Amino acid sequence: MLNIIKTSSLLAIAAFAAACSVATKKNTEQKAEEVAVPSLELLWETDTLLTTAECAIYDKNTQIIFVANVNLNPWDKDGNGFISKLDLDGNIVSLKWVEGLHGPKGMEIVGNSLFVNDIDQTVEIDIPSGKIVGGTKIGGKPTLNDITASSDGTLYASGSNSQKVFRIADKKVEIFLDGDLGRPNGLLWEKDRLLMLTNNTQRLMSIDWQSKEQTVLVDSLGHADGIEAIGDGSYLVSNWKGQLFYISRDMTKTKLLDTIDEGINAADIDYIQEKELLLVPTFFDNRVRAYKLSR
Description:
Blueprint: H1 2-34, E1 39-45, E2 53-59, E3 64-69, E4 81-86, E5 92-101, E6 104-110, E7 113-118, E8 121-126, E9 131-137, E10 144-149, E11 155-159, E12 164-169, E13 172-178, E14 184-190, E15 193-198, E16 204-208, E17 214-218, E18 224-229, E19 235-239, E20 243-247, E21 253-258, E22 270-272, E23 277-281, E24 288-294
Antiparallel strand pairs: 1-24, 2-3, 3-4, 4-5, 6-7, 7-8, 8-9, 10-11, 11-12, 12-13, 14-15, 15-16, 16-17, 18-19, 19-20, 20-21, 22-23, 23-24
């Protein structure tokens, strides 16, 4: 009987030890995942021929980076805004590829078209020809900022001062979201939700497509401007004043970069997943900076 008790005790101890080992391994793996925050390495920056660079976007088909240049006052209808073209090494291929815009900001690519938010209209530019081929006027004073597109090409545009998000399909405009939105800016379309950044409330919000219910995912993001998916369920977010944040899959926020004291802004970013390259327009610093994202 004593031997049976000893054997049972030994088995229980062994089982307990094994369970502890598994638990320790899981905790170690979880901690490793928690601390696996990427880092940024500056690869290149353009010269300062750009003027108030607000947004950058990469076109996979042409391997060109388009840059929206507000050219001084972001909300004046002064006709001096333009779009530049860069190569992947940061060289300016064409400084004023498209001219005659006012305050171009958010951009999105659908097929061979580059759509640009320009204060009160979304301008369509044919990429192969570099010609403006159309536009969709938004009534009133929408103060258009960022823009994103669904998989079927439907556009969603934020109206920062108007506190609205507009939906544009077949050049028809409707208000998708309205109310006290905290001054909406950065948008990112996802299949099950719309992600939205707010300047005044400094939040990353999730908007349900059907119910339009708003859920706060992350707060204290500063003057939240651009948002990009890394591709693994995590995100990069810019604070216009000059910060870049990493948002993990569990919505934990980590600051990756801070250039506020240097007077270098971080406006509407783009992330090239296949190249692990983050593009950061520096607004009043008049450049685009490119960072290697290491994970």
